[in-house]
Amino acid sequence: MTDDETRAAARIVRRPDDEAHLVADVDRSLAQCAEDAALEPLVAWDARWCGLEVPAAPAVGFAVLEARGGVGFVLRLMVAPEQRGQGYGRALLDAVVARARRVPSVEMVATSHRAENTVMASLCAAAGFTAWETPFAHDADEVYLRLP
Known about the structure:
Layout: H1 3-10, H2 26-35, E1 39-44, E2 61-68, E3 71-79, H3 88-101, E4 108-114, H4 118-126, E5 130-131, E6 142-146
Parallel strand pairs: 3-4
Antiparallel strand pairs: 1-2, 2-3, 4-6, 5-6
């Protein structure tokens, strides 16, 4: 897929307005990716569409991987509301972690989420993420995690 096709597919994954305090929307995320080469947008489809140059169904999820300073950081992760509860979140998180581990400069994989985001907290715990005492200042309402 071209960058334009990837961006168009990502824009299908809409964040509900009532989750604006939990995760940035796709348009903002794509704008950040366009400005920063360390950010990589990733779009997820149902596995039934693997092998097609352009999947025949809408994307089910969107993520942004940041590779900087030896850390592969899952900066964004969202699943389309109508696709939730089917395992796409875990599959997308696993795929982003695998992608991060393929980046030669990445020594550690980490993420963060708002303290009130219990869905992301459960997802990260199930994937094996543990608390990370970061060496930098951060928002007290943000929970930082890393894979051991």
